[in-house]
Design a protein that fits this description.
By secondary structure, this protein is mostly helical. The protein has seven helices and no strands.
């Protein structure tokens, strides 16, 4: 149970605002009617995150934290820029709809690198890390779904007041872009 709670708290912790911002930027053109698709995108993110943690636990990958702390907000900037540019993850072409899952998984790999050192240290010496890793990732999924339920509920509320998808994309994309850009500048590798 502690691994599930650790995973959920990892994704919902406000000191790790990057995960929340990424999910909000990713959801900028969605509402509750698209919860299923958004949940699949979140799962693609978790899959990438999980692969990184697995490889880190096996000591296959090690990250240079200074570059990862820069790349994580950069993934948010890119995601938000797509939203600002008008790429609709809801109504785009089949290629765009499918490729966004791949990009989301790749961005999950990068975000996982930011947590991999801590996770490797917290599980070091434990040869049976697969079950705790699965529980941790279940916690991440639960945390992401909670964030998405709140976010998409707010977006649906906005839609009920007449806010159109494009306006939502611009406002949410612009806000997440601005916040993430500050994080990119603050973490610029010197």
């Amino acid at each position: 149970m502690k691994d599930i709670i650790l995973g959920a708290s990892h994704i919902t912790d406000l000191s790790g605002l990057d995960h929340i911002l990424f999910l909000i930027a990713l959801a900028a053109s969605f509402d509750l009617t698209k919860l299923g698709r958004m949940a699949l995108l979140a799962t693609a993110f978790t899959l990438g995150h999980s692969i990184t943690l697995l490889l880190a636990n096996l000591d296959v990958v090690r990250s240079f934290i200074v570059y990862i702390e820069f790349l994580i907000p950069l993934t948010i900037v890119i995601t938000a820029a797509l939203q600002i540019s008008g790429v609709s993850l809801v109504t785009s072409s089949k290629f765009a709809k499918k490729s966004i899952y791949i990009f989301t998984m790749l961005f999950g790999l990068i975000h996982g690198l930011g947590f991999s050192s801590f996770y490797r240290i917290s599980t070091s010496g434990d040869s049976n890390f697969i079950i705790p890793l699965l529980k941790f990732n279940l916690g991440i999924e639960i945390g992401q779904l909670l964030i998405l339920l709140v976010t998409l509920s707010l977006f649906s509320l906005g839609r009920s007041f007449g806010i159109h998808e494009r306006s939502q994309q611009l406002v949410v994309g612009g806000a997440t872009f601005s916040l993430a850009l500050v994080m990119v500048i603050e973490n610029w590798p010197i």
